[in-house]
Description:
CATH class of the largest domain in chain C: Mainly Beta
Strand order of the largest sheet of chain C: 3-2-1-4-5
Order of helices and strands of chain B: HEHHEHEHEHEHEHEHHEHEHEEEEHHH
CATH topology of the largest domain in chain C: SH3 type barrels
Radius of gyration of chain C: 24 Å
Strand order of the largest sheet of chain B: 2-1-7-8-9
Mean pLDDT of chain C: 85
Largest sheet of chain C: 5 strands, antiparallel
Shape of chain C: rod-shaped
Number of domains of chain C: 2
CATH architecture of the largest domain in chain B: 3-Layer(aba) Sandwich
Oligomer: heterotrimer
Strand content of chain B: 15-25%
Strand content of chain C: 25-35%
Distance between the termini of chain B: 28 Å
Number of helices of chain B: 15
Largest interface: B-C, 57 and 43 residues
Mean pLDDT of chain B: 91
Low-confidence stretches of chain C: none
Largest sheet of chain B: 5 strands, parallel
Order of helices and strands of chain C: EEEEEH
Low-confidence stretches of chain B: 372-380
Distance between the termini of chain C: 47 Å
Amino acid sequence: MALRDTHVTLSHGGGGKAMRDLIEEVFTSVFAPPGMEDQARLMDAALQQPGARLAFTTDSFVVTPVEFPGGDIGKIAVCGTVNDLAVGGARPLWLSAAFIIEEGCEIALLRRIVASMAKEAAKAGVRIVTGDTKVVGRGSCDQVYVTTSGIGVIPAGVDMAAGHLRAGDVAIVNHRLGDHGAAIMAARGDMALSTDLQSDCASLGHLMQAVLAAAPDVRAARDATRGGLAAALNEVAGAAGCGILLDESALPLTTEVRGVCEILGLDPLYLANEGTLVLFVPPDQADAALQAMQSLPEGTGATIIGHAVADHAGQVRMRTAFGGVRIVDMLIGEQLPRIC
Amino acid sequence: MKFSTEFRDPDAAKALLGEIARLCDDMGRSADNPLHIMEICGGHTHSIFRFGLDKLIHAGVEFIHGPGCPVCVLPMSRVDECVELAENPDVIFTTFGDAMRVPGTQKSLLQAKAAGADIRMVYSPLDALELARRNPDRQVVFFGLGFETTTPSTALSIQQAAREGLENFTVFCNHITVPEPIKALLDDPYMVLDGFIGPGHVSMVIGIHPYDFIAQDYKKPIAVAGFEPLDLLQSVLMVLRQIAAGEARVENQYARVVPEHGNPVSMAAIADVYERRPSFEWRGLGEIDASGLRIREKYRAYDAEEKFNIGYAAGPRKTPEVEGCDCGKVMTGRIKPTACPQFGKGCTPETPLGALMVSSEGACAAYWQYGGARGVAAAE
Amino acid sequence: MCLGIPGKIIEITDTTRLMAMAEVSGVRREVSVAPIVTGALADVVGQWALIHVGFAMAVIDEEEAARTLDALRTLGEAQETLEAMADGDAALAGPTEVEGAA
């Protein structure tokens, strides 16, 4: 083992031997990319099929704390990018991973994050094939930021888009809402809450493939990440020519997430999720979609939460458990805890 | 969730709504001549909209949204003073999340934070105390915002700081009281109010007798209410029954939490730490006598205004209202948010002119977020 | 300043500073119980209290809660009775009208 340092220094970003050792020891020996050229050279037979399209996405991850109950920044990075591909109907293939590392960051932390990413990539069936590292001065970033880009293949015949939504289509989520956002809020410590909540961050590539096989006319799917379910639904409604009506009593929430929300005055619809997607299917395919989801661990909690409606085009509304109807709007900024 | 879910039972709600409807019909009240019931507390405004009560309730009841939103009545100059304190490099400025987005004349606390000020959101003044203990070389200032519900928490925290002899903890006191602005509204000849929904959590501290003057002097009924939808509906029913019977009394709907005479420990702490200012500036309402609190001389060391020579300690000042802003009229229930010329135009949640658009309890924010403004069809 | 949530006091954490652990739907937070201590500190354990900004502000009176719920239930039953009576009256008046199809 050539690397004896315990913490990252600016030399590790300098382009010299220190940097090569860091990259080799911490990253490439684990990710094992195909070849060590400046670029990965790749082909998958599926891309050559007539009607196939390349799917391409990118995301940066800046979550703090970097490690939290249920995961770390590396795990979310892999899941996040895999899911962005999956919700477009793509089979995820390859990821890139770029790291911006703060001077002074513990190398052991980097190793844990990389191990996490490798494990999640294997689970999701993707390879991390290229990457980059940079080191920035102390205080210029929060320990480490990760940017992942992903390539996948959308087979012929799969054409999902929010614009395809029609009144009557059924909205289904695969999993509970708010666990990730609530877990992060609690883990940040400034609210001094203790819970057993864990982030439920998960790759949903296999889930989406299973759904598409059982319910080929899935209209659209969205990852309910930042801004929560409300953001995802508003995006879909905005692009579609119809409205969306949710049923509050159908929303799957754990008592603990409800507890965090009640204490801090948060609305669970706006909490980030990293293992929950929402998709829309024609009513006659809803059962098939549900069954396909429920047969997988990431989908055991799959449930119908509402449907597309002809009214209030572009807007999301919710029938409250209480019997009234209210608008579910996009948040302007971040949801802040309140005492009023 | 115990003591919450039971009070959200939709079947019981139907019964209450039915009874309210029956009474309204009996009294000949409709959308054309509704009864004006003011919910004083911003938390009630929030509940009403969150549960869609405004759309479910008979049109003979019109909710007038009162000034019980401590963020909404925060003068811009006060926000400026917060920003000034926060921009002091020695200071860790701590605040509830509610205050972060309120615009000052130049910027909000959120914007000041983005520009580098050390501003931290806390859930409790106790967290600010802990920050002071852990950062002896920094000055921790806690923004003491709120009505009587929250006042005891800062009072008790100041007492705790004094017991420990902390030298780096101060409170920037913006505590205000409920009865005074209500009296000001009742004295306003333009206000037509038939009854009140009283603030349940303020009353948990001060009891129900501070509202006696509403019933005795102004002959209006008031029901002190909890925050679940059934609490609110039951309170409306109580008020309507009084109106129907020609009565004016103070009733306690929230008896499971509100003791008749309030909480002795909390009230003793408030009396020990605070005294009334001769008058205090309320955004939209102007100066109201004896409605704001300041820290007593004996706890001067914990008063941010004294330590940093800011606010009322530095002398009187008044901020001119933003052009075209009707915050005051909305806050006193004189007009609905949608009638403000700026609503949805110059003033949106993204670019708020006043605090009512950003506060989670603000009527304008509620209208925007929950749909009164954008045309959710009335009464499903 | 109205956001208060019922929580159960599960154990004392600091006798000098009158702090205790409160639990709300499985979420725990240390709170000051100063406002609700009337006798022995230990007496607050097991009680339900209204928690606001890290303070247990008031003990929730379970009997009063039950009384309020009972009143609501009675109203519900009275309402049902009224509706049933109204239905009965209508039935006596003639065949049930069905709402227009539109």
